[in-house]
Amino acid sequence: MKYAYFPGCVGQDSCKELDVSTKLISDVLGIELVELEDATCCGAGFVQDVNYDLALALNARTLAIAEKLHLDILTVCSTCQFNLDRANRELKDDPKKLAGVNKMLAEIGLRYSGTVEIKHLLWVLVDEVGLAELQRRVKVDLSDLNVASFYGCQLIRPGTLHGYDDPDRPQYFERLIEALGGKPVDYEERKKCCGFPITFVNEDASMRMNAKNMLAAKGKGADVMATSCPLCHINLDMYQGKAEKVSGQRIELPILHLPQLVGLAIGIPPERLLMKRHIVSTKSVARAVKPKEEAKIPAMGS
Amino acid sequence: MGAEGADVLVAMIKVYRFDPEDGRGARYDEFEVDAAPGRTVLDLLHDIHYNEDPTLSFRRSCQSAICGSCAMNVNGRTGLTCSTQAKPLLDRDGYLVVEPMKNMPILKDLVVDMDGFWESVHDVDPFLQAGRKVPKGPYIVPKARMELLKIAQDCIMCGSCLSECTSREANPDYLGPAALAKAYRFVADERDEARHGRLMVYSEANGIWDCDTCLYCNEVCPIHVKPMDAIMRMREMSIEAGIQSQGSKHAIAFYDTILKSGKLNEFATANKSLGLKGMVAQSGVATKIILHWKTPEIRKKPIEGVKDVTKLANLIERKKRRGTRR
Description:
The complex is a heterodimer of chains A (about 300) and B (about 325).
Chain A: E1 2-6, H1 16-29, E2 32-35, H2 46-50, H3 52-68, E3 73-75, H4 78-93, H5 95-106, E4 118-120, H6 121-137, E5 140-141, E6 146-150, H7 153-156, H8 159-162, H9 172-179, E7 183-184, H10 203-219, E8 224-227, H11 230-238, H12 240-247, E9 255-257, H13 258-265, H14 283-288, E10 290-291
Parallel strand pairs in A: 1-2, 1-3, 3-4, 6-7, 6-8, 8-9
Antiparallel strand pairs in A: 5-10
Chain B: E1 10-17, E2 27-34, H1 41-52, E3 71-74, E4 77-80, H2 86-93, E5 97-99, E6 106-108, E7 111-112, H3 115-123, H4 143-147, H5 150-153, H6 160-164, H7 166-170, H8 177-187, H9 195-202, H10 216-220, H11 227-240, H12 246-261, H13 266-281, H14 283-291, H15 306-321
Parallel strand pairs in B: 1-5
Antiparallel strand pairs in B: 1-2, 3-4, 3-5, 6-7
């Protein structure tokens, strides 16, 4: 398993812990990452708002760089996944558009022929590392943890773009949580919007969404939430205090990045996963992680 | 029950019931139905209405997925019941539940009050403003220009997108996907002379910048209209037209940092987007960020290929000036 790794801007800045924990678990799980250090931002929808054609060209440039390496791209962000994937699909489906973009790429010494696939870490963990292998790697007992997943809109919709999860019944996260020994929380809001894209435009509406999602998860017994998108993480974690104010309810829900949850399960200490960087304390999560009793280790291949 | 014989597939269906006049409050009634392959959810509702409980209320008309009357929430997803088959859902979920659309008040059983939906549509002024350009003969629009309307013009006003709109759920004043798709239909029509004024109005609070890009509207539209794409295009058009709003300010702040370094500068974006007053309002969050060492880098080191970004931006600028649009 070797991927061109697209860390995303936020994943290496305010959510640095996402990048660090991705690299740590990839090392243990045998996912070789070749970092796309020279890639630009995916546009996150905002560059697309200002200049769609430039966003398409920049993403084509990233795809061309990965193609040169003969590697598929691995993302760790629902938004990066969507924007790169959408650009890729647009270019693959429309030879005229691809030719037009290639004319521009030629000016910077690049060319894209349309061979690259883009995959989110969640899909790679479940489909390629495999649930049995993950289960085998689990070093601690997470059976006391009710884990609520939070997908981020753009990882599941539109279903026709991604083709992994059923957008009405996403299951990749739940299957992963189960393999790691935690208890997945079944709640509808895991598919909803975190509100982040409008936090700077209509903070109240964004916080109402944010609070509703987290309170729904808590209502179903969640001890912790894990997300596959750092932008969701910003709203869920950094803005949780504001969500509490808007809803008038205490939430106090620790929010992990997907690779932090995996890291904890495979025995990487919380300090190394930079869990101290979170705004909402993650101490309760660390406390709920128990040493694994030998008798509980499932037989290999079972 | 519907068809008889070997093809009958007996299943239970749960149907949302509410009658404001019976004082019983909301509940679910269960019915035994024939969910044989090929039968739609609307077929099952008809069976119930005609054979078991004539008081069950729902809207429907053409049964051909064109009138847009029969949108309801089936197993958690809004869509046209006349084009939603029961058996695949039963196979996937093991149950069938029919509920009224969301984000609209319930009048009775599966019938919702769509006044709010229509008010939003009216708010975007959904009529062609021909101005003084009305020609004496037919107005021939080039095919390429009409192609631009493709993502919005097929809307049948069923309300499915509004039912699933996460932004409307949090903010009932938000115009919502169907109204904004309709708005785009006129903005992108070269015969319409009110384009600039329209974009100004749609850029105000509760308009195009309040979409949270959750993609639900594109996902559930039964006839593949793409309201979110229409909204995104209007954002770009409004910025090209120099119309200022909080949303455009944020997008431009974000965009500028990409031009400068190839990557997002979170600090500069927040700073520029919010301004001094906005930053003060965020001081609580900012303090927490600093205390947890989460402060984003103030100066972002440009990527090595930042010159490529400039070059591509210039090429596109030149192309746009030549008047070729995607």
